[in-house]
Amino acid sequence: MKLFSPQIAALVVLSLTMAGCSTMGGKTAKDSGEGAAVSEAGGVDISAASAGENWQGNPLDNPGSPLSVRIIYFDYDESQIREDLRDVVIAHGNYLAINSTVTITVEGHADERGSREYNIALGERRANAVRNLILAQGAAENQIYIVSYGEERPLMVGADEEAWAQNRRVELLY
Amino acid sequence: MNKILVLVVGLLWHFQAIAALTIEITEGVEGALPIAVVPFSWEGTGAAPGQDIAAIVSSDLSRSGRFKTLPASDMLARPHSDAEVEYRDWKVLGMENLVVGRIQPNGSAGYLVRFQLFDVFKGALLTGYSIPATAGNLRATAHRIADIVYETLTGEKGAFSTRIAYVESIPDADGKKRVVLQVADADGYGPQTILNSPDPIMSPAWSPDGLRLAYVSFVRGKPGIYVQEVFTGKRQQVAAYPGINGAPAWSPDGRQLALTLSKDGNPEIYVLNLTSKGLRRLTEHYAIDTEPSWSPDGRTIVFTSDRGGKPQIYRVPASGGRVERVTFEGSYNARASYSPDGKSLTLVTRQGADFRIATLQLGNGRLQVLSDGVLDESPSFAPNGDMIIYATRTGGRHELAAVSVDGRVRQRLTLQGGGDVREPVWSPFTKSNRRNQ
After folding, report:
1. Do residues A149 and A123 lie in contact, with contact meaning Cβ atoms separated by under 8 Å?
2. Residue B176 has pLDDT above 90, yes or no
3. Chain A residues touching B262 at Cβ < 8 A
4. Does residue B149 sit in the same domain as residue B227?
5. Residues B174 and B94 in one domain
């Protein structure tokens, strides 16, 4: 199957991953941008994009959707997106391409090993890797704000691989 | 390995009520000069001053790694002036030098601290001073005495009157973390909060005059570089570009800051003129370039780059030009800074799974690992080049540690009841260090 537009790609990804998904239906997303409205609280109405799916709410809240995954983990001193997480980033890219008024913060992080400023740079490189894959799906640059906290904001405090693995990450914040 | 010597001295700490600073000397001191510092007498009426001057002087001297001090309990006599000194009492104990002193009342609220330094083997008085002091600066007076003793006996300036800045993470009352930038005496006493933030503070750097600190502070999710006057608290934002604003490093003349910006796509080293605000780009590479540090002559900047695949130290002329690799040993070398004489670097090096503090001799490329922790970072030379302070993790705690440059004496500085401590930076020599005397 060929993907002709980010909009269709998004729906394909959504449909492939949603449990009990039936058909895509004829009502594809309207023009990107139309169906999305950002509330002050950051909530998003994308009823148009999700029309035809059996998840009735905000697709960002659908626990069966890759959009519900907001943390992308990385290997040590690596900024390449792991194969098993590429689809998640692509799903977010497609979502943003469709909903062009939605913006996200892409936060890069590192584990505590190594020097702090190098880890800031590494966190940014990871955030940029995620950003670039999102942009490749048709999202616009002004939808994405990048920041790196390096090792300054660990998810898990600890001095072992379990904690470090949790902390080498990029967080997608809608 | 020598037995562990532990000195615990109480101090009043501004944040918690009472805390204690533990100085634990963890390595041997073979070859260090034996010296006795006799407890000073109090010659006034009423309560004795609240600081044990001799203990502070002893602690300073032994921390340097250059001296082995005699415990007061081993002393055969307690002289307080030259008239009372019997050299044989100290010769039999193997002492080469002796410090005696007394504290006299001086005016209504002041003291006069008098001390003398002797060469035991020559049987000679080397020097003696009378220093006016107040209750508030007795510790500073003790550090000054240690500086005089150190300089008289080694020929090098002592760094005991200088200060350190560091970042501390403190749990708040509601369980959240506060991040504070602290300035304390070089032995960790008397911390004062320079900046208090709910968000990360990083990379403090002293101006060459010791009056200002540059640092990175995240404000509303954006990092910026700030320069703050230590005494007035007045601060100025000097860089807040899109992306990384990091790793500020002062030029030796204090007029420029080298820093890391990623505004042009990825982290590069720039030089910011603090007067004209002009910005000059120094590196141009798609890899990470960060952690600049100036040579003391101002001509060279070293930095961390992974342009060779792994982080290593490189150098570039401060005026721009060809980049050369400096470190070749090991898979991870980062955060380099110059020794005060410009002949060596201190840096973080990876050994197996551990990150340790090392020095690199620039003349012959010799790398010497000085620490033995699992996660040692942020090394910073004392302004006389004799010691390096750094951050270490012991168990779950992040603390400060210091090591003599020959690696012989290591010590941990534990602020009990405090938070995680990291990124220590040693101040330069300044007049302001002695402003209270």
Report:
1. yes
2. no
3. 121, 124
4. no
5. no
Query: CATH number, domain at B78?
Result: 3.40.50.10070
Average pLDDT estimate for B12-39: 61
CA distance A79 to chain B (A): 12
% residues pLDDT > 90 (chain B): 75
CA distance B361 to B366: 5
Q: Does residue B233 sit in the same domain as residue B149?
A: no
Domain end (from B130, B154, B178): B154
Residues B55 and B11 in one domain: no
To test the contact with chain B by mutation, choose from A78, A117, A147, A160 the residue with the greatest count of B C-beta atoms within 10 A, namely: A117
Q: Which amino acid is present at B276? A: S
Q: How many CA atoms lie within 13 A of A66 on its CB side?
A: 21
Last residue of a domain, one of B124, B154, B184: B154
Residue B437 forms part of a structural domain = no
A116/B378 CB distance under 8 A: yes
Give the mutation candidate from B199, B202, B303 for the A interface (greatest A CB count, under 10 A): B202
Token pair belonging to B317: 């002329």
How many domains, chain B?
2
Residue B177 and residue B99 share a domain: no
B131 confidence band (pLDDT: 50, 70, 90): very high
Q: Are residues B123 and B210 in the same domain?
A: no
| Inter-chain residue contact B290 with A146, CB threshold 8 Å | no
The mean pLDDT value for B161-166 works out to 94
Would you say residue B167 has pLDDT above 50? yes
What residues make up the domain containing B13? 3-25+162-430
Nearest Cα of chain A lies from the Cα of B380 at a distance, in angstroms, of: 13
ipTM over 0.90: no
Q: Which of B270, B148, B208 is nearest to B425 (CA)?
A: B208
A112 chain-B contacts, CB cut-off 8 A: 375
Residue with tokens 């104990």: B93
Q: How much is the pLDDT for B22?
A: 53
Residue B273: CA atoms inside 13 Å, Cβ hemisphere, count? 7
**Cβ of A116 and B244 within 8 Å?**
no
Q: Min CA distance, B253 vs chain A (Å)?
A: 24
Does A149 contact B218 at a Cβ distance shorter than 8 Å? yes
CATH number, domain at B345?
2.120.10.30
CA dihedral A84, A89, A92, A97 (to 10 degrees): -130
For chain A, residues with pLDDT lower than 50 are: 1-52
CB B98 within 8 A of CB B117: yes
In a domain? residue B436: no
Q: Are residues B203 and B272 in the same domain?
A: yes
Q: Phi/psi zone of residue B282: left (φ > 0), alpha (ψ -120 to 50 degrees), beta?
A: alpha
The answer to whether residues B76 and B191 belong to one domain is no
CB-CB under 8 Å, B246 with A118: no
